[in-house]
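Input record (one chain):
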Amino acid sequence: MMGYIAAEFIIHKSLRKKSTFIGLGMASFMCLILGILILLKNSNNETTIIWLQAIGLMINRFVLCGFWSIFYVYVAELYPTQIRSLGYGWTSVMGMIGSTISPFVTTISADIGVNSWFPPAIIGFISCIFVVKLPETLKQSLKDVIEEQAKFKNS
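The corresponding structure, as predicted from the sequence alone:
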């Protein structure tokens, strides 16, 4: 909730691509840190690690909520009006697929002896690489038609 509120204050000024890259990178980094904390847990520091995990989870939730609200605006600005709803739909479907397979990733991670925080961290870092290729959309006019169609209509 607090992440959504914070995003409301910065969304009008923040660069979409940069915010998406930073938010995704921070969330991935927090997953990596949470995975490392689990590896460091022993009987001497168990209480401290549990507190650090709780704080890390709260920070990660804050970052994800803020990032996701900015990302949805970014998705709307990336697609032309003709297919904008498809962009939203694609984003929603990918989120549903991620939600559906996450329990399986946790189970498979446990079966092969990998900390369950590492796969989301790796997927997030790989996604950051793809965000670099996306265009910046802040203060750009929204396209109405797909560029190929516009070329065809003008000729």
